[in-house]
Specification:
With about 725 residues, the protein is an alpha/beta fold. Helix content is about 35%, strand content about 15%. It has four domains: about 150 residues, Rossmann fold (3-Layer(aba) Sandwich), CATH 3.40.50; about 170 residues, Glycogen Phosphorylase B (Rossmann fold), CATH 3.40.50.2000; about 180 residues, 3-Layer(aba) Sandwich (Rossmann fold); about 160 residues, 3-Layer(aba) Sandwich (Rossmann fold), CATH 3.40.50. A seven-stranded parallel beta sheet has the order 15-14-13-16-17-18-19, with helices on both faces. α6 links the parallel β7 and β8. The C terminus is likely disordered.
Length: about 725
């Protein structure tokens, strides 16, 4: 049997705790989202302790199955070999890896030295000779930044380097969190990174200026703070020094208002990944001018003595603060997002292999059979509803159609992970843009995507914003479909119905509670094409109970799933602890579902497992009970798959009538509902749901429902639109 040929092999020492492992993990995730295969080849560095374990980031890749670890001395075949960390080759390798690669790139992610000693870390010529001896003379050498390029040129002026830097990448959708105001009553300055003396200014007075030790500031340091404390000779009262690894960088960045980074003047920082992480998280960064080639105008530049004044200015001007954060996020996405990595892989002939989702023949890689494209445009939304509905339809398109997902949602990476060609459009909220600018941006972005992908049909699951309406009018030769969920709030949105007349067709996903729909879509329903309720998965795609329980680590006790939405509109954390305590006391093991686009982490509760899965519906048969919001997707999944449910409708939604939907479910006996979880009603309803006979009755009534999954019918209808306009 022939050996597997991987798309990408990455050779490194996977025990490095900092930026090297973070960079590898980011690239592997980008490759996995594009359905590209990755194998990791571990080669110990002579500079790492022998007993050091793999970085948690690398272990997570292997645990989640997004990369394969090559066994010792196993021959590896790949289309592209990426070698990271030159210091591995400062000595001869004890075992030379057996790798057959079509192309090889040595990513120079650390300079040979610093300003004080250009050879401090390694001898570039000696490393180059070893690498060529092991992998051949055609290895391509790619610095990670202009700073590293300059350092290599200093020690080896004739070095043959790639024209473009092999820059870092980041999944902005994973890092970004909307920031509702500042962290506290005074500005919170912070930084994170591994504990290395060169990561801090040598002069204690510069440390004090960059990270104020008094006045109206707080300072938080994750990793390496003890080095600064030693240099200062004391730990300032306003400093919070957190050990490296005690908090994840994602969690830490949510606790600060400003990211400030200054280091040893001799250090040549290879890139500055922690800076990029802060930008992607919505935290303005203040750094030295020497970083400008890497971060352009997305950062704020100052000297240590200028930090305090700049922080005070932005703290006093929230609008400017938000503008800086939004500009940095857009820069990170455009310059260093996952698409930039996929574009450079395409330069090596490695293009996304968009695999069909299970049970689908319609999401292809754009090969010979995929002759017609459907561009699917989703809003950002408070939850996953818009994007999930479009993906549910897209994965059921016929084999001669392929979908391109264009979304304003933070969950763009989820669509990538499901195998779709995905385009991200930053929303108005993210960009903090005025309405006229946002209208022009959205119209122009849609025009670009139409020119690029040449769709036959454009399906829009969001409100008809002005930019979309203008795009429809600019492209009359296309077929435009408004995928419009019903069950709007009474008296809200009539203007949107009027704007929606610009579309050629309206597709309305079915609604179990349609008979109590009092929203403005009712009057327009006669002209809409209606299908059954749409869910991402069919019942046949759910895991069996035993397999689902094993996947979640559950035992034989009753289990409850709590999923109250993304938490982006109302505060979902307040009832969670009461629900967990009440059900836990009644013998339930508890799983808390954290949305992939939640802007704040769910509370961690002792004895409660937190999972972040998409789609979590695949595991629904593991549970005897769910406590859920009443958004369109979760509502129809729980009822359609006959899962006993207590609905806690979100009453704070602008358009979606979750309360009406949940009331109807309770009135028809297919679910229980709690409308005011701040009262004892919550515990009283949970007591009912804890009774096995009540849950059995709910499941029985759900199984009597007649609706099927309308995703297939919607996909078939969309694909048949080719002859419904202009005879095309």
């Amino acid at each position: 049997m022939p050996a597997t040929t991987y798309d990408v092999a990455i050779l490194s020492d996977f025990r490095y705790p900092g930026g090297t492992s973070a960079s590898i993990a980011a690239e592997v995730h980008a490759q996995a989202e594009a359905a590209l295969s990755t194998v990791l080849v571990h080669v110990p560095s002579p500079h790492q302790p022998k007993t050091l374990p793999f970085s948690p980031r690398i272990s997570d890749l292997l645990r989640d199955g997004v990369a394969t670890l090559a066994r010792d001395e196993e021959p590896v075949r790949c289309r592209l070999l990426l070698v990271r960390q030159p210091r591995i080759f400062t000595e001869d390798l004890a075992v030379i890896p057996r790798i057959q690669a079509e192309r090889t790139v040595m990513v120079i992610n650390q300079p040979p030295g610093d300003a004080g000693n250009p050879f401090r870390y390694y001898d570039f010529a000696a490393v180059r000779d070893r690498v060529h001896r092991y992998f051949g003379p055609r290895v391509e050498w790619a610095p990670i930044s202009s700073q590293v390029r300059d350092q290599v040129r200093q020690v080896e002026p004739e070095a043959r380097l790639a024209d473009a830097d092999w820059h870092e990448i980041i999944d902005v959708a994973h890092w970004w969190r909307d920031r509702d105001g500042f962290v506290g009553d005074v500005p919170v300055i912070g930084r994170h990174g591994r504990a290395d003396p060169v990561k801090w200014p040598l002069d204690p007075s510069e440390i004090q200026r960059a990270y104020p030790v008094e006045g109206d500031f707080r300072v938080r340091v994750l990793g390496g703070g003890e080095i600064a404390v030693r240099r200062l000779g004391h730990r300032p009262d306003n400093w919070d020094v957190v050990p490296f690894g005690a908090e994840s960088p994602e969690e830490f960045l949510r606790t600060i208002d400003f990211f400030v980074y200054f280091h040893d003047p001799d250090l040549v920082e290879a890139f500055g990944r922690t800076i990029l992480e802060a930008m992607a998280s919505g935290v303005p960064v203040i750094i030295g001018e020497h970083f400008r080639p890497t971060f352009a105008d997305a950062a704020l530049y100052a000297t240590p003595s200028g930090v305090a004044g700049l922080v005070r200015e932005l703290y006093a001007d929230p609008a400017r603060y938000r503008a800086v954060a939004g500009r940095a996020r857009e820069f990170a996405e455009q310059r260093y997002g996952h698409q930039s990595h996929l574009a450079r892989l395409a330069g090596f002939g490695i293009r996304p292999r968009i695999s069909p989702a299970p049970g689908s023949a319609g999401v292809g890689s754009g090969g010979a059979a995929a002759t017609r494209r459907v561009l699917m445009v989703s809003d950002n939304g408070a939850g996953m509803g818009h994007l999930s509905r479009l993906m549910a339809i897209a994965r059921r398109l016929p084999a001669d159609h392929t979908a391109v997902i264009a979304t304003q949602s933070y969950a763009a990476s989820v669509a990538h992970g499901e195998g779709f060609l995905t385009e991200y459009i930053p929303s108005r909220k993210v960009l903090q843009a005025a309405q006229p600018r946002w209208t022009a941006l959205l119209r122009d972005r849609l025009a670009h995507l139409i020119d690029l992908h040449e769709p036959a049909v454009v399906a829009v699951d969001c409100l008809p914003h002005a930019g979309i309406v203008e795009a429809v009018r600019d492209h009359p030769g296309l077929i435009w479909v408004w995928v419009r969920r019903a069950m709007w709030q009474r008296g809200v949105g009539a203007d949107w119905i009027t704007e929606g007349k610009v579309f050629d067709h309206v597709l309305e996903p079915g609604e179990f509670a349609a008979v109590v729909d009092e929203g403005p879509t009712v009057a327009d329903r006669a002209s809409a094409v209606q299908v059954e309720p749409i869910t991402f998965l069919d019942a046949s795609e759910l895991l069996a109970r035993d397999a689902a329980r094993a996947g979640l680590g559950l035992d034989d006790r009753p289990a409850a799933l709590i999923q109250l939405g993304a938490g982006n509109i109302n505060d979902i954390s307040s009832p969670v602890a009461r629900i967990c305590r009440h059900l836990g006391e009644r013998g339930f093991q508890l799983v808390l579902a954290e949305s992939t686009i939640a802007t704040a982490p769910l509370p961690r509760i002792a004895g409660v497992r937190v999972v972040k899965l998409y789609p979590v519906s695949r595991y629904l048969r593991a549970f005897d009970l769910t406590v859920s919001a009443a958004g369109y997707n979760s509502f129809h999944e729980q009822l359609g798959f006959a899962i006993p449910t207590v609905f806690l409708p979100n009453a704070a939604t602008r358009l979606d009538d979750q309360v009406g939907r949940a009331r109807f479910a309770a009135a028809t006996g297919v679910a229980l509902t709690v409308e005011d979880p701040s009262t004892r009603e919550l515990e009283e309803v949970l007591d009912q749901a804890a009774r096995p006979e009540v849950r059995a009755g709910l499941a029985h009534r759900c199984r009597e429902l007649a609706f099927e999954n309308g995703g297939g019918a919607a996909a078939a209808w969309l694909s048949g639109l080719r002859s419904r306009r202009h005879g095309g």
